[in-house]
């Protein structure tokens, strides 16, 4: 399928944005008079701190920044932060993969179609820690270890700032696609509590059958409380509990004597609780102590592929599972973050000193399963081992504004980071022989404990040269204990022709250090052949067997980022249009299995290690992403109908993989290192077009939101073109009606996916097990219509 060019799609997007809002402005203009006239754009633009060392409005920055309020996040049916963010931010994609092991439980988000680990996540401007999970299966973001956005509850947040621009020179590794800054709520008083309950009411039409599903409910209870610390400090406490029942959207299994749905293809079962605290307390006349801490425990149960009665019989466990069985993958994630700091004035300089610690541990269990090697003596539940990642970050940031030009802000600082990564083996029965069906455990061969350190220094200058011209220059140098040094730079500029029109642009270089998970994740299975232990699986690139096949120490990914755009604002209307070009080189990818059967040379290289097949990470991919973002808003206060906020936001994006390695340092030619499906997942695994239009209405105690999101086609690639699955082009409609304002009782009724839209079906000819009935690359999932009610109390 050949897409429209980025340029033509961009023109259509800008035209649609302008047209819809111009029509809206004309429609409401006759009712907007006197005190009810549209508010000035300057009065409604939020203040941002991401991408700039100064406080500016979102319309006054040199790079595009989206600001999403906690209210916008709350006024949806979902209580998952990543899902809510993707719903209202067109450049963010959050697919909902299934039957992908741990990725079912900890799902990565993408920005501008790039890898999930190429977006930096901050909490109050401080680097957040990544998940211990490495995504190694066939999902969007394969090979990445990213921050789990769903570890932070929406109720703990004040707002989210999404910088859609490369920012490695300002913030360090990972900020190739952009930065997501989660700003925590700060309150000395007040509070609120909310309960959200919802369920699915959907018609599931698969290739082989049709059924109606009502149920699969979820409930979230959340609350926060502001507490004064003395006369001038604050402590804000937040908490959230969620229970979500699993969804099931699989097709009939034709392998059964009487075909039925024996899978659980859909969202996993989830139980989680999260607590957060954020505090600040002035010390003396010009200093403040501050800090925050959060903890989440999440218990998730997702399903593997079902084992049929014949499979159970072949494994010698038919007496235990005469009707076959469905293995469940149980992940128990414990996530901790804690930060403390001191900021204030020192000789006219603003100084901020902070230390942060983050840790994520994931324990794996396989439930309702069997180890065929043990026959009827097999346990049914297995402990599979654990992954742990932790991170210490310490930094000092210093800044001061000088009367040079109109103003010159000078900022500089240092940062140190220490990371650790560990793999712990599971119980013997989980990995011995054939291992637990569904998810074999980690064996002692997989045990890993690795650490690294890095230090960095940066300088960031931002000058208001004239009333109309702003110029920024930033540079950063970093040194890592594993791969050495790297340097990045950025130049940004903005020119305001008038209060109503400005142009802006940036040019930068960026980098992303290979994660410890990519460097050292090990998943090796062993079998005994002729009395010898034969190994197969994933090895670190520096392991002896990988080195024999040409594996090398991993190097950082590097990028070149260019962006240019303009800002228009007039009265209650504003619009930003920003084009971008991002080229990533030395990109990391997880290779395919290199089999000893490829050639006698490969077999000879593997033989000394008793290895049958091996895969590992390789530098050398290159890709180019280009596109355009358009965000347009119009606010009008009418005399009789209330206040209307209308917005249209869209992203058109094209990713092209421009280089794929075909050799290693020892293999020329090499077997296929990156399969067609891996390359296409990078290019067409996220929407080429996504447009969201919404109307938010408020009058007195009443309010409502209507939102339509259009998704362009996404391809879930197969081994060949005939095996590709297409999501199709679809529009999802969400509605919510509300009662209440400010303090007191608040009620809401809503529906997500009003018209019960699904991705295109996977044909029966490509779904031999009946499990994957819809492409799980779908950017809007595949669960159907969701009804919900929300009740809250604010004080």
Brief sketch in words of this structure:
The chain has eleven helices and 37 strands.
CATH class: Mainly Beta
Helicity, as a percent range: 10-25%
Give the end-to-end Cα distance, rounded to a whole number of Å. 54 Å
Structural class: mainly beta
Describe the model:
This protein is mostly beta strands. It has a single domain, classed as Maltoporin, Chain A. Strand 21 and strand 22 form a beta hairpin.
Helix/strand layout:
Blueprint: H1 6-29, H2 41-44, E1 47-48, E2 56-57, E3 65-69, H3 70-74, H4 81-88, E4 92-93, E5 110-111, E6 119-123, E7 126-127, E8 157-163, H5 168-171, E9 178-184, E10 191-205, E11 210-229, E12 233-244, E13 269-283, E14 287-303, H6 309-314, E15 328-346, E16 349-367, E17 382-402, E18 407-425, H7 428-431, E19 448-464, E20 469-480, E21 484-498, E22 501-512, H8 516-520, E23 523-529, E24 532-538, H9 544-548, E25 557-570, E26 573-590, E27 594-595, H10 600-606, E28 611-615, E29 617-638, E30 642-659, H11 676-684, E31 689-699, E32 702-711, E33 715-716, E34 725-726, E35 730-739, E36 744-752, E37 786-794
Parallel strand pairs: 6-9, 24-28
Antiparallel strand pairs: 1-2, 3-8, 4-5, 6-7, 8-9, 10-11, 10-37, 11-12, 12-13, 13-14, 14-15, 15-16, 16-17, 17-18, 18-19, 19-20, 20-21, 21-22, 22-25, 23-24, 25-26, 26-29, 27-28, 29-30, 30-31, 31-32, 32-35, 33-34, 35-36, 36-37
